Every structure is written in structure tokens, then in C-alpha cells.
């Protein structure tokens, strides 16, 4: 029998395609021959191999481009001519060109034509091209659905295989819906080759359209009773995906734990089988997948965990670890033991395995050990603490990946007992590490020091070392918090300014944060600096006035310092004029030289400050008096938390709204309230731009600090100098003037300073995922207006950006929102915003709150209803 | 899930790229470039995992790679995959290629990209592991190649018979051949001189696997300096 009688081998176009057929007579043979002659007569396109040769022979990139462009042009022209004979070869060339990075999208339709061809060679290339060139963003991909459907029903297993493979790679939701039925049928096919591919197709379909999970459930269950490892591995993958997708399915599949245990046991106990053996271990891939599924099934489930304990112990003890594959399985086992509710003994075993991993010579194993320890450190800190010295050792590893993991883990291990030793190591690490780590590492050190510092002196020393070691990589919030800390610890001020002076005079090249903090504290505590007790240990003696001024001159004329730093320096220098006795002339000279500075900011300061040396010199001492100790902003965050604790549990129940309506339309906010109010027309206000206003209490403080506008209770300012001071205050905010009688203006409550005396009721409106929102309510007397100060605190370790807070109230209320103090929440930082709600009809207040922010680049949106305002609030 | 599988040589020239998540064409090239820059600057004695690529997936994403002679095999995966498991998978992939091409080298990958894709499609599908049994993969590939060959040979057969019989056509013209079938177009000797083998020298995979860790150190195989490397290195640079 000649091969061309078989349908699958047919070389003829579909309309001429016939099986063995008595009509295969001389006439048709002649027709075929004519076609064949046509093929031979036409100019043959270049073969793929020759194209690759030509491209390789190109000596410059331009030459390569010209070869490719020429060939692309040729391929395009053949596509236009509907030349079907060489299509397959042309697409193959196009795919090669695509890989090199040239545009190849014009081949998409040709791929579809190849797929429709009856020849297997054509189909193979066509499907390959479809996988590489098509995507669901283009409408063309829907045209493939019908071809896929036909091929899924083909009698040849490889054609079905190709179709499944393509569907598994590019299925879109529409395609998934159309073809789910076919896939379900193929999952029950007697052919293992098809079954395993169908299982992964189902995986893709469920990923795209989770609702379709139902129809696959029965077929999936039977995949586990399979002998073929390919089917088993894909089946386990599919079940894992289903379980992670829906809790219902998870409980449905709890039943299969014994089956999985049995399969795993067979794998371990089975002798050598050449097919699945990978360096002496029987199918590690399947073992890993099963261990992972066991983990998913065993989380928070005592019974399931109980059933797994034995087998996990067996795997952990029986696996041979001289090869990478053995370690792969052990690694997965440890992860499973740590995640499920396993026995204590088993956990000890797991941590010991990790300890062994840490000492392993193979860097890969060390890396995964650190990774796993990082995941388990929250579960069992003491176990991980035992490996502390090894982990610290890893900080010195030449490998970036290991160093990064070791750093994260070290910070997780810091506590009050070991902070001194850990910090020594971490500071040494910070000094030597690559720039990419410096910002993260310095912030983490600052946070850890803040939490566990044994005393203030140590804390300040650590901060100083961070500033020196991390240079310009220190984040801005460190500057303000350090300044606050210095101002708050009065006993250490002379010591700190001496140390800072030392650091500054040794090395003032391009460490802006250090310079800024140093000049601030020298300016503020200049007199203390001169009288500081010498530091015998390090041989630091207090400088003379001239030495200080000389240093300032250097700073001011150094081209490396930024304008902001120079502004700090100028301000500080002005302050020094009241702290120092003998160098006033010199200071005045320096400042007046800035009257003609090219930079407008510096010039303005120069002019303003020189006024203080001339006509208004009597104002200078009171203006530049020392600042009162600043409260730490962080402590405000703590207050917020305690406030939250005081409020009754019902108030917190508002937090329990489900989180998955993250992407709800903004109208949802309106609809929700519409239910309670017949007229659903609401005032929704959205303020997304932060406006620098003194309502904030953190960022702008620096500015106020700079000017030294402490509690200027000396009244001449307001009595005589309203106009005169205008100059000084011009680029400050006039609110500072008004508030300077109020000594606690730093607490930020400028807005309702009159009502602050009252016992302010607070309520926690929101507390989830480390974001806490506290309302402090203030009824403005003799009106129907309630002023709400909203404090949002970020209790996570990551920075939240683009924070937007929106509020809606029923229509009977009037809502006025002031600008927030910012849109960025640094770890433990906060943002405040004031709302005013007017309630003419004295209804009980309800509020919808919607918020959105970006954390680690991921958008988060949520909304809650706040209806637990105290009833007596309007009285 | 595996997000992408990239193979490129020591100069960053792509030899295989397969994305299981959609990226526009120019983005794909950027990803390859960035990945090459990240991976190529790493020593051979550091670990095979790398974080910090900014283009795919953000923080939940890792590069896991092995370096064989002149080629880097890079798998970009998310956190749901076991790092060590993927290393094993790369090894299976390379060993399969080695068995399929008999002593695989970079040139094989260059001239038979389609074949490499077909093998990969039997190993990984839609970003998930499909089959890890090498023998099974090879039989399936062989079967499919046979199908192609039969199609071609039947066509050639038909043409020759009919042409000779009916028209007496001179069949010296070239016949449509299947893609990448003629592996021996570039002679084996030629191949050996141009590019160092992935597996070290003529001992091939033996050396790969007899290493104490079971898998080869991802190191540049001992390319003997006596190879006529001058010409060929310039050629590989531009292709």
C-alpha cells in the first residue's frame, strides 16, 4: 500500500484530499503532476538554513539588518501572492527573525492558514507560530478557535497534542469558554499523552475563567488514580490550582490526602526505575509537586496534617542529600512541615535540616535555606536565632542574592537582647555593601534602632554611624526623625553635636543627610558644642569658634553640597551668631556675601538674614532662641494605636468588610449609601494633591525648625514688627506667626487649637493590612459642624504611596474636606487630614470611606462604612 | 509558574525565547537584554538564583539560570515554583537536547530553533511542567518527526514517479523539504571546530553528570585555547 492512500499522510490540498479511492485515476494523477511541476518551476525561496547562514555571515549589525529586511520583504510578497507551497518554510524563517527581535506580526494570519492545512508539517509550524506570535490582545486569535476545535477532534494524537499545547499557551477567556467542553472530554481520553496535556489546558482555562472549575472536578479526581507520571504531575498541578482558587474545592479535595500519601510512599519505596530516575531519586518533580499540594491541603487543618506527619517524616529522613535533587525534595518537605500544623518533633527536624542547609557548600542550598528561614522566622523565632552567627556570616558572602536574603533575615532576627551585637555586624555590612542595598539597609537599621535601642546615647551613636556609612542613600525621613531625636534628648545634645562636628570636619564630601543634620544641631546647640566634655576615647576635643566658622565656610562654598544643604547651613550660621561671642563679624560677612548669590533661594536667605544683623538686630536673639524639645512623630502613631484599643469592639467591627471588591466602580460608593438614603445624591469629595499647608505636622516642621520659630513668647514681634518681619516670614507660612503663642503648635493641631482642651473622642474607622485610620472628633461649639481630624498611620514595613482618602456622607449632611498632609505614608509614618461635617438636621451620622494606595507597587483599594459615631456627638 | 524561558549565548544573542505571559515584541527584547546583563555579570561560583529584574512581574519573580559552555539557560519563574526544582528541570531540558542532537552545541540550537521549540513544548506547557521523563519526550519527538518525514517522502516519491513516468521531467530541481531536517548540512567536523560543545569536549554528558553535586557546575566548559576561535567568535557575535 502506498503511503499516499492514508488520509493523514495526504499531501494534496483539502479539496483534492481523498482516501484510497477508486477514482484515483489517470486524470487526477495528471492534475497532481501539473501542480508538482508548478512547484518546481516557481523560484524556490531561500531555505531557513541559508538565511541563518547569511545572517551569521553578516559582519556588522547594519549588514544583518539589511539581510533581514530583504528577507522580510520577500516573505511579505509571497504572503500576498497566496503562494501556499512554501508558506511553511517562510513562517519558519519568520519565526527565526522574530527571535532576533525584528517585527514579525504580519505572519499571524499565515500561521492560521498553516494550522488549517491538513499536513502535519504545516500544522506543527503553524501552531508554533501561533504560540509565539499570537496573543489574546489581538482579534486574530479568535479565528484560531475553530481550527482548534477541529484538531481537538482529530484522530491523530499528535495533532490533538499540538492543539492542546497551543490552547494551553494562548487561551483567552472567550476561547476557554468555547473549548472547555472539549477539554473535559479529552481529560478522560484513554491516551495518556492527550490526558496530561488536557489537564494542563484545564489548568489554563481555570486560571482564565475560574467559574469553569465545576465541570472539570469529576475528571480531575480520576487523574490521581493514574500510573503515568506525566498525567500524575499535571493532575496534581491542576488540583493545586483548584484548591488555591476556591475554599470549597479545597475542602472537597481534603479527601485525597490518603491517596497522595500513598503515591508519595510508593515513590520513595519503589526501587530503581530507569524511566523516572534522576540521579538516584525517583521522579523528584512529582514528589515536589505532591509535597506542595499536601502543603496547600494541610494548612490550618489538624486532621489532614495528622495524616501527613508520618510520610513527611519518612521523606525527611529517607532522602539522600548528596545530590541537588535530594535537596530539592528536602527543601519542599521542610516548607510543608513549616506550613501545616505538624508535630513539634517534626518541626525540630525541619529546622535542623535548614541548619544543615546553611552550612552546605553549595551556594544554591544556602540561598534556599536563608529563604526558608525568612519564611519561618515569624513562626518560630527562637529556632532561627540559633543559626544567627551563620546568618551573619552570610552577610559577607560574595554573592548578591545570598547577601540580600541574609540581610533581610538578620533584620528579622534583631531583638532587644541582641541588638548591640547585631548592629555592629549590620553597620559593618552597611559600610561595605553595594549602593543598591544602602537605602533599604539604612532604613531598616534606623527602624530597628528605634524599636530596641537600649539607651539614647547608643541610639544616637548608631544613627550617626548610619549617616556616615550610607551617605546620600539615607532616606529623607531619617533626617527629620534624627533631628527630632536629638532635640528630644537634652542630656545628649552637647555630646551629639561634638560627634557630628567631628564627622563633618573629617569628611564632608557629598553626604548631604549627614551635613544637614550636623549643621542643624551645631546651629541649635553651638554654645553646648564649645563647652562639650572632650571625648577622651576617640581623642575628640571641642572646637573653637573659629574652627566652626571655618568649617561652615568650606561647606557653603563646596560645589558638592546641594542648595538645600546650603540653606540649612545658612540658617544654622545665623543661629550661631547668637550662640557664639567673638565671631559675629565673620558670620555677618559670610551671610551678606550671599546677598548676591546666583541662586535665588540662597540670595533670599542672605538678604533676609542680613537684615537681622542691621536695623533689626534687636530681634535676632529672641527669634533664634533654642527650639523646645520636639515630640517624636512616631509616638503619635503609638497614641493612635492606644486610642484604637480604648474604643469599644463594636467600632472595630466595621473593619470586617471583604477585601475582594477592590476594583469596584467608584459608583458603588454612591449606591451603597443610596440604600440608606432615599436621595442618593451625595457629596463625594476627592482630594488627591497634597498641598503644603501647616496642617501637616511632620514635613513642614523642618522648615519651622530651621527658622527656629520656637515659642516666641516675647511679644515685640507682633507688637512692632508685623511689617518688618514680613521679610523673614515671606517664604514661611504666616500661620506660624499666629500660632507662635500656642506652645504646642508642633503637635500639629493648628486647626482646632481652641477645642483641644476638651476630651476629644476618637474612633478607629479602619484598621486592616497595617493601615489604621483614626478619627478624632471635635464639635465646634455653637454650630452644627463637626470637625474630624483624620490620622492615617502606616504600621507596615513598606512605604505606601499615592494614598487617596475619600469620604461620602448622606445628602442631608454637608462635607468639607481639607487637603491631606501628604500622599505618601512611610513605614510608621502618618498623614493627617481635616474634615468638616455640617449637620443641619441633626440626623445620626453615617459615613462611607474609600481609600486606595500603592504598596510595593501593588494597588490596594478598600471601602468601609463608619456608623459608630457617638450618639451624643451633636449635643 | 514559569513566566519565560530564555536561552542566549555569552554575547547576549538570543537562541531561544519563549514567553508564557504576554509581552509586546519590543518588551520581549528588552527583557532578554536586561536578563543578559543581570546574569552575565555574575561569577560562576555564586548561586544560580537572582532577583531584581524589573521588567517581568516585580517582586514575585526570580531568575533561575544555568550556564553551559557558551549558553545561558534562564527560567523566569514566580514564587510558586521551587527554585531547586527548576534547576533540575533545566538539567532535564539540556540533557534531552543533548540526546536529541547527539552532543548538542550552540550551532544545533541556532540551526534548529524549531526543533528546540518542539522539545520544549513536550517538557513545559503553558508555564507548567508537563513531562520530565526524557525517554518519553524523545519517543514523542521521534514519532512526530517520522510523521513529517513520511509526508515529505511521499511527496517526493509522488513527484519523482509521476514526473519520470508521465513527462520525463528532469528532477534535478530541489524538492520542498521539511524544515530543519537536514541536520548534517553543516558537517559534524565543521560544527566541532566552530563552537565549543555544551558538554565538555568529546566526553559529553559523562562529564556533566559525574560531578559531585550530580549536576555540572554551571561553568564554561574547558574550551581549549587551541581551538581556531578567532574567526568563529567574530561570526557568532553577529548572528
From TrEMBL, chain A:
Gene3D superfamilies in the cross-refs: 2.60.40.1230, Leucine-rich Repeat Variant
A GO CC term assigned to this protein in UniProt: AP-1 adaptor complex
PROSITE patterns for this protein: GAE
Location (main, coarse): membrane
Record field: compositional bias (Polar residues): 634-645
Chain segments carrying region Disordered: 634-662
Cell compartment(s), UniProt: Cytoplasmic vesicle membrane; Endomembrane system; Golgi apparatus
Domain GAE, first and last residues per copy: 758-870
InterPro entries cross-referenced by the UniProt entry: Adaptor_Complx_Large_Subunit, AP1_complex_gsu, ARM-like, ARM-type_fold, Clathrin/coatomer_adapt-like_N, Clathrin_a/b/g-adaptin_app_Ig, Clathrin_app_Ig-like_sf, GAE_dom
Keyword field contains Protein transport: yes
Family: Belongs to the adaptor complexes large subunit family.
Protein name per UniProt: AP-1 complex subunit gamma
From TrEMBL, chain B:
Keyword Hydrolase: no
Membrane topology value: Peripheral membrane protein
Subcellular localization, as worded in the UniProt entry: Cytoplasmic vesicle membrane; Golgi apparatus
Coiled-coil regions, chain positions: none
GO biological process: Golgi to vacuole transport; intracellular protein transport
SUPFAM superfamilies registered for this protein in UniProt: SNARE-like (SSF64356)
Entry GO terms, CC: AP-3 adaptor complex; cytoplasmic vesicle membrane; Golgi apparatus
Major location (coarse): membrane
Domain (AP complex mu/sigma subunit) ranges: 1-147
UniProt-listed InterPro entries: AP_complex_ssu, AP_mu_sigma_su, APS3, Clathrin_sm-chain_CS, Longin-like_dom_sf
Domain of life: Eukaryota
Keyword annotations of the record: Cytoplasmic vesicle, Golgi apparatus, Membrane, Protein transport, Transport
Family statement: Belongs to the adaptor complexes small subunit family.
Cited function: Part of the AP-3 complex, an adaptor-related complex which is not clathrin-associated. The complex is associated with the Golgi region as well as more peripheral structures. It facilitates the budding of vesicles from the Golgi membrane and may be directly involved in trafficking to lysosomes. In concert with the BLOC-1 complex, AP-3 is required to target cargos into vesicles assembled at cell bodies for delivery into neurites and nerve terminals.
Protein name: AP complex mu/sigma subunit domain-containing protein
Lineage: Eukaryota, Metazoa, Ecdysozoa, Arthropoda, Hexapoda
Amino acid at each position: 500500500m502506498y503511503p499516499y492512500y492514508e488520509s493523514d499522510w495526504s499531501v494534496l490540498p483539502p479539496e483534492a484530499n481523498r482516501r484510497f479511492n477508486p477514482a484515483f485515476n489517470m486524470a487526477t494523477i495528471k492534475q497532481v503532476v501539473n501542480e508538482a511541476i508548478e512547484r518546481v518551476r516557481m523560484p524556490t525561496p531561500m531555505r531557513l538554513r541559508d538565511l541563518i547562514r547569511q545572517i551569521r555571515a553578516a559582519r556588522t549589525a547594519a549588514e544583518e539588518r539589511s539581510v533581514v529586511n530583504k528577507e522580510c520583504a520577500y516573505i511579505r510578497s509571497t504572503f500576498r501572492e497566496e503562494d501556499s507551497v512554501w508558506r511553511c518554510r517562510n513562517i519558519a524563517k519568520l519565526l527565526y527573525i522574530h527571535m532576533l527581535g525584528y517585527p514579525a506580526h504580519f505572519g499571524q494570519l499565515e500561521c492560521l492558514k498553516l494550522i488549517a492545512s491538513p499536513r502535519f508539517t504545516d500544522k506543527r509550524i503553524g501552531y508554533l507560530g501561533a504560540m509565539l506570535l499570537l496573543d489574546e490582545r489581538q482579534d486574530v486569535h479568535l479565528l484560531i478557535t475553530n481550527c482548534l476545535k477541529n484538531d481537538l477532534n482529530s484522530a491523530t494524537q499528535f495533532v490533538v497534542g499540538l492543539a492542546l499545547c497551543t490552547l494551553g499557551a494562548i487561551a483567552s477567556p472567550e476561547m476557554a469558554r468555547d473549548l472547555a467542553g472539549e477539554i473535559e472530554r479529552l481529560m478522560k481520553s484513554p491516551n495518556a499523552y492527550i490526558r496530561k496535556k488536557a489537564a494542563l489546558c484545564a489548568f489554563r482555562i481555570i486560571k482564565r475563567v475560574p467559574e469553569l472549575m465545576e465541570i472539570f472536578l469529576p475528571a480531575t479526581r480520576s487523574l490521581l488514580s493514574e500510573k503515568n507520571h506525566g498525567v500524575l504531575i499535571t493532575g496534581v498541578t491542576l488540583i493545586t490550582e483548584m484548591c488555591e482558587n476556591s475554599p470549597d474545592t479545597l475542602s472537597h479535595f481534603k479527601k485525597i490526602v490518603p491517596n497522595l500519601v500513598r503515591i508519595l510512599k510508593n515513590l520513595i519505596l519503589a526501587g530503581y526505575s530507569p524511566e523516572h530516575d534522576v540521579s538516584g531519586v525517583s521522579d523528584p518533580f512529582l514528589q515536589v509537586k505532591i509535597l506542595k499540594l499536601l502543603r496547600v491541603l494541610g494548612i490550618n487543618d489538624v486532621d489532614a496534617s495528622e495524616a501527613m506527619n508520618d510520610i513527611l517524616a519518612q521523606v525527611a529522613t529517607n532522602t539522600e542529600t548528596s545530590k541537588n535533587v535530594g535537596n530539592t525534595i528536602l527543601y519542599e518537605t521542610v516548607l510543608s512541615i513549616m506550613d501545616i500544623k505538624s508535630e513539634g518533633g517534626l518541626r525540630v527536624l525541619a529546622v535542623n535540616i535548614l541548619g544543615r542547609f546553611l552550612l552546605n557548600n553549595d551556594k544554591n542550598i544556602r540561598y534556599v535555606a536563608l529563604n526558608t528561614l525568612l519564611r519561618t522566622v515569624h513562626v518560630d523565632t527562637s529556632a532561627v536565632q540559633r543559626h544567627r552567627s551563620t546568618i551573619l556570616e552570610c552577610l559577607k558572602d560574595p554573592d548578591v542574592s545570598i547577601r540580600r536574603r541574609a540581610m533581610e533575615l538578620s533584620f528579622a532576627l534583631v531583638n532587644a537582647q541582641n541588638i548591640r551585637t547585631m548592629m555592629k555586624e549590620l553597620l559593618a555590612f552597611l559600610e561595605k555593601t553595594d549602593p543598591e542595598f544602602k537605602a533599604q539597609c539604612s532604613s531598616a537599621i534606623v527602624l530597628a534602632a528605634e524599636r530596641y535601642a537600649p539607651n539614647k546615647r547608643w541610639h544616637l551613636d548608631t544613627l550617626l554611624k548610619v549617616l556616615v556609612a550610607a551617605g546620600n542613600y539615607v532616606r529623607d525621613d531619617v533626617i527629620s526623625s534624627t533631628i527630632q531625636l536629638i532635640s528630644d534628648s537634652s542630656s545628649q545634645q552637647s555630646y551629639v553635636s561634638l560627634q557630628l562636628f567631628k564627622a563633618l570636619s573629617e569628611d564632608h564630601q557629598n553626604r548631604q543627610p549627614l551635613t544637614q543634620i550636623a549643621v542643624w544641631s551645631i546651629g541649635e546647640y553651638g554654645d553646648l558644642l564649645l563647652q562639650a566634655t572632650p571625648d577622651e576615647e576617640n581623642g575628640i576635643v571641642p572646637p573653637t569658634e573659629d574652627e566652626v566658622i571655618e568649617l561652615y565656610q568650606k561647606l557653603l562654598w563646596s560645589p558638592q553640597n546641594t542648595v538645600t544643604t546650603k540653606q540649612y547651613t545658612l540658617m544654622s550660621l545665623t543661629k550661631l551668631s547668637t550662640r557664639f561671642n567673638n565671631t559675629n563679624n565673620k558670620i555677618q560677612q559670610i551671610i551678606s556675601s550671599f546677598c548676591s548669590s546666583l541662586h535665588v533661594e540662597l540670595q533670599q536667605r542672605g538678604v533676609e538674614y542680613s537684615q537681622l544683623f542691621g536695623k533689626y538686630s534687636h530681634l535676632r536673639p529672641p527669634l533664634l532662641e533654642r527650639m523646645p524639645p520636639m515630640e517624636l512623630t512616631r509616638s503619635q502613631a503609638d497614641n493612635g494605636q492606644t486610642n484604637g484599643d480604648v474604643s469599644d469592639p463594636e467600632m472595630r467591627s466595621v473593619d470586617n468588610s471583604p477585601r475582594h471588591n477592590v476594583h469596584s466602580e467608584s459608583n458603588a460608593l454612591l449606591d451603597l449609601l443610596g440604600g440608606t438614603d432615599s436621595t442618593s445624591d451625595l457629596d463625594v469629595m476627592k482630594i488627591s494633591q497634597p498641598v503644603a499647608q501647616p496642617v501637616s505636622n511632620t514635613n513642614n516642621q523642618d522648615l519651622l525648625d530651621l527658622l527656629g520659630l520656637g515659642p516666641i513668647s516675647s511679644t515685640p514681634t507682633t507688637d512692632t514688627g508685623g511689617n518688618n518681619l514680613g521679610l523673614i516670614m515671606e517664604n514661611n507660612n504666616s500661620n506660624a506667626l499666629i500660632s507662635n503663642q500656642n506652645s504646642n503648635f508642633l503637635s500639629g493641631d493648628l486647626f482646632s487649637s481652641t477645642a483641644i482642651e476638651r476630651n476629644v473622642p476618637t474612633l478607629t474607622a479602619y484598621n486592616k493590612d497595617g493601615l489604621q485610620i483614626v478619627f478624632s472628633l471635635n464639635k465646634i461649639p455653637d454650630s452644627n459642624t463637626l470637625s474630624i481630624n483624620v490620622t492615617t498611620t502606616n504600621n507596615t514595613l513598606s512605604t505606601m504611596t499615592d494614598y487617596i482618602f475619600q469620604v461620602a456622607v448622606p445628602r442631608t449632611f454637608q462635607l468639607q474636606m481639607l487637603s491631606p498632609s501628604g500622599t505618601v505614608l512611610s513605614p510608621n509614618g502618618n498623614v493627617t487630614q481635616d474634615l468638616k461635617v455640617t449637620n443641619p438636621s441633626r440626623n445620626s451620622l453615617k459615613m462611607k470611606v474609600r481609600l486606595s494606595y500603592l504598596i510595593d507597587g501593588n494597588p490596594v483599594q478598600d471601602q468601609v462604612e463608619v456608623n459608630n459615631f457617638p450618639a451624643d456627638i451633636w449635643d | 509558574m514559569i513566566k519565560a524561558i530564555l536561552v542566549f549565548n555569552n554575547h547576549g544573542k538570543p537562541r531561544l525565547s519563549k514567553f508564557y505571559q504576554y509581552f509586546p515584541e519590543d518588551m520581549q527584547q528588552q527583557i532578554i537584554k536586561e536578563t543578559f546583563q543581570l546574569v552575565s555579570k555574575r561569577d560562576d561560583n555564586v548561586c544560580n538564583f537572582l532577583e531584581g529584574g524589573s521588567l517581568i512581574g516585580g517582586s514575585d519573580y526570580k531568575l533561575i539560570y544555568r550556564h553551559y559552555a557558551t549558553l545561558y539557560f534562564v527560567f523566569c519563574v514566580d514564587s510558586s515554583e521551587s527554585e531547586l526544582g527548576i534547576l533540575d528541570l533545566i538539567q532535564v531540558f539540556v540533557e534531552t537536547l543533548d540526546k536529541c542532537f547527539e552532543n548538542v552545541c550552540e550551532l544545533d540550537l541556532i540551526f534548529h530553533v524549531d526543533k528546540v521549540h518542539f522539545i520544549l513544548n513536550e517538557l513545559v506547557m503553558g508555564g507548567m511542567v508537563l513531562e520530565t521523563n526524557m525517554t518519553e519526550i524523545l519517543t514523542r519527538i521521534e514519532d512526530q518527526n517520522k510523521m513529517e518525514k513520511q509526508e515529505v517522502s511521499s511527496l517526493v516519491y509522488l513527484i519523482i514517479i509521476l514526473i519520470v513516468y508521465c513527462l520525463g521531467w528532469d528532477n534535478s530541481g530541489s524538492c520542498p523539504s521539511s524544515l530543519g531536517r537536514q541536520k548534517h548540512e553543516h558537517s559534524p567536523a565543521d560544527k566541532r571546530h566552530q563552537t565549543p560543545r555544551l558538554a565538555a569536549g568529546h566526553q559529553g554528558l559523562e562529564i556533566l553528570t559525574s560531578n559531585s553535586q550530580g549536576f555540572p557546575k554551571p561553568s564554561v566548559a574547558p574550551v581549549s585555547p587551541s581551538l581556531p576561535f578567532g574567526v568563529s567568535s567574530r561570526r557568532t557575535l553577529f548572528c
